[in-house]
């Protein structure tokens, strides 16, 4: 026979109601008391009845909110696939996943989506944040005042009370890009940086990682930028043409966001494809085509599907089992491909 809530209550010296609130993360309860009850339950081998818990969740209409920024980009379309799979699994066990898609990067959009989700009674939120003081303040408010745990994905805001982060170690990705670019340009010459949004923490970390590693290992490389294309191919193309016009001796471009198609078109039109060394990010859109044709020298990728799936499931496991995430950071693998390692 399995361990019961009554037995846990007796061992912890609290009421069955307190145990139920601690294990199901509902109602107000002192964090230290909840932690002690969960520790005792784990030591006693307590496992909830999943069918009964699912029925209970259905009656409570337990909801998890997901806020996806930059939803129209190829990368986020794959993130969305992971979210949809997690949504199907949560729905099957009696919960509900509410998804808000924001086409571009928008602090106001995030704040409005968070408030709407709170009004609709969500128990937790997974979101791709933006570097904005109001968004950070709102995250802390939701965690502290409303007891709504928040998991960030794709980009992170470390200086908040969010539960954990799922995504690429963006600073390390930038360092990796610098190491690759440094060798491609033989450690000297001009290299331009084109990014998406200065308010995107992940893209900013890539830039910082790239700059720091370049300055450390390749001091003869002159860095230009970063310039921001807002993940728009037309603007990315214009920025590429501008930097080439102003710097005819340019040797490389680090493109760390969506906008690769616009950049590669200009390189091809100017007869510079293959001559200008390009390190870009993500195995999405036409990037494999550009890699195969030589317009992009190297691609650095990440697991977009996991970034969509895992945040929802972390929150589900927290609400369903009382299972805390293993660590503050769940970094996805940094993968590097060239023209010879493209999947067939």
Protein described:
This protein is of the alpha/beta class and 344 residues long. The chain has three domains: 5-47; 61-168 and 304-333, Rossmann fold (3-Layer(aba) Sandwich); 170-301, 3-Layer(aba) Sandwich (Rossmann fold). The protein has helices at residues 5-12, 16-24, 31-43, 50-60, 74-92, 107-119, 133-145, 170-184, 201-217, 233-246, 260-269, 287-293, 304-321; strands spanning 63-69, 96-102, 124-127, 150-153, 164-168, 189-195, 221-228, 250-255, 277-281, 298-301, 329-332, 335-337. A six-stranded parallel sheet has the order 2-1-3-4-5-11, with helices on both faces. A six-stranded mixed sheet has the order 7-6-8-9-10-12, with helices on both faces. Helix 7 (133-145) links the parallel strand 3 and strand 4. The mean pLDDT is 91.
Question: Would you summarize the structure shown here?
Answer:
This protein is α/β, with parallel strands linked by helices. The chain contains 13 helices and twelve strands.
Task: Determine the strand fraction and express it as a percent band.
Answer: 15-25%
Helical element count? 13
The name CATH uses for the topology of the largest domain is Rossmann fold
Q: What is the molecular shape?
A: elongated
| Relevant CATH superfamily of the largest domain | Response regulator
Largest sheet at a glance? 6 strands, parallel
Which percent range fits the helix content? 40-55%
Domains, number: 3
- Reading off the top of the CATH hierarchy, the class of the largest domain is best stated as Alpha Beta
- pLDDT average, as an integer? 91
Terminal-residue CA separation: 52 Å
Order of helices and strands: HHHHEHEHEHEEHEHEHEHEHEHEE
Which ranges are low-confidence, i.e. pLDDT below 50, for 5 or more consecutive residues? Answer: none
Gyration radius over CA: 23 Å
Label the structural class: alpha/beta
Strand tally is 12
Order of strands, main sheet, comes to 2-1-3-4-5-11
- Architecture (CATH level 2) name of the largest domain: 3-Layer(aba) Sandwich
Oligomeric form: single chain
